[in-house]
Inverse folding.
């Protein structure tokens, strides 16, 4: 059962690892301008605004989550095939939006499947989910090594085996265990949302993901301009994920000694520092390595706290809606706005200016957190 569950995580994040660090380089090689690259990269985030809610609703309504995961995997692969036609900007944007709408359906549905399949053994979730990080790191390193020897225009072909792995692994997914539906006191979702601490939480995460826009869109281009090869770029991306894994392993210890609010403020301060280092000190390898280790703060710590925050404020009655809002407003809207705004800055001022823009957004997130972030009562 463990390997059947882990398999899809491995292939899903392997696709992200093979694509995210190198897709902007592929688009640049295709001759697209920086604003066009930013728009195409933003499409990966844009569909997260609606896809988790739509597919989550279908899963709850039909109860056929395993079947919907298969539809997402196969539909995403078919839509991605449009890339091989080498369309212009509009055609590629349409293909990317269609592909990511299906692809972004897989993970939220599969998280529910995994937790329900594990049942009382949910403490094993971390060991299952860990294989996603292994897939990401392996794909980043392997694709980076291959691209040192072949032109980056070959990237879509390198991703084909990963799409096949995703599709095949969906047919190894175990059927969900049935569970009795319990009527929960729903309360008012609006009353939850209009709390100062909840408004601050969503605004903080929106700004946090805006600050990540230059990283996910132009980090590889920024490194290449400073003389780093594709394999080195891949290793630097992998280092960030390794730091994130290490943080997850010790997060429970940090929370014993520091409050949720203090961890959030500290992580946001380190995030702003990270973008400043990347903006102007990329040529110094030691400082760049340190900046990548800070991915543990800018993603790992803040994501772990966000999951706890949603559970505490939204409770069981609105947990699904809280997760959908978190994904849509932060990774979706925030990520898309950050990608597009970074494109503007790169177009007119350069990649360094885009990362300084990220530092400003992270600083604004820090101020919002200072104003409104408060731990749920059960976490204080």
């Amino acid at each position: 059962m463990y390997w059947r569950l882990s398999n899809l995580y491995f292939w899903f994040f392997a696709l992200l690892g093979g694509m995210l660090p190198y897709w902007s380089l592929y688009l640049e090689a295709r001759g697209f301008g920086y604003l066009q690259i930013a728009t195409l990269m933003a499409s990966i985030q844009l569909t997260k605004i609606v896809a988790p809610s739509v597919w989550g609703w279908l899963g709850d309504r039909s109860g056929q989550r395993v079947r919907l995961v298969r539809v997402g995997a196969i539909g995403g692969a078919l839509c991605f095939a449009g890339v091989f036609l080498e369309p212009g900007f509009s055609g590629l944007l349409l293909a990317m939006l269609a592909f990511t709408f299906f692809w972004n359906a897989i993970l939220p549905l599969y998280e529910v499947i995994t937790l329900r399949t594990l049942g009382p053994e949910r403490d094993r979730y971390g060991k299952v989910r860990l294989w996603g990080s292994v897939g990401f790191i392996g794909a980043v390193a392997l694709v980076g090594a291959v691209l040192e020897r072949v032109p980056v225009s070959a990237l879509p072909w390198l991703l084909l085996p990963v799409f096949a792995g995703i599709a095949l692994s969906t047919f190894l997914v175990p059927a969900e265990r049935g569970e009795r539906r319990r009527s929960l006191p729903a309360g008012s979702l609006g009353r939850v949302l209009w709390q100062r601490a909840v408004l601050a939480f969503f605004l903080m995460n929106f700004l946090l993901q805006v600050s990540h826009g230059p990283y996910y869109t132009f980090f590889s281009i920024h490194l290449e301009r400073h003389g780093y090869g594709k394999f080195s770029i891949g290793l630097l991306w992998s280092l960030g994920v390794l730091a994130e894994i290490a943080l997850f392993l010790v997060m429970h210890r940090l929370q014993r000694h520091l409050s949720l609010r203090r961890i959030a403020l500290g992580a946001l301060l380190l995030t702003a520092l990270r973008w400043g280092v990347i903006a102007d000190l990329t040529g110094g390898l030691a400082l760049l390595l340190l900046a990548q280790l800070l991915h543990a703060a800018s993603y790992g710590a803040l994501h772990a706290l966000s999951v706890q925050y949603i559970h505490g404020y939204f409770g069981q009655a609105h947990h699904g809606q809280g997760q959908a809002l978190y994904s849509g407003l932060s990774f979706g809207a925030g990520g898309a706005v950050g990608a597009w705004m970074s494109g503007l800055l790169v177009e007119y001022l350069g990649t360094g200016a885009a990362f300084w823009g990220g530092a400003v957004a992270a600083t604004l997130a820090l101020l919002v957190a200072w104003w409104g972030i408060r731990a749920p009562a059960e976490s204080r």
Remarks:
- DSSP finds 15 helices and no strands in the chain.
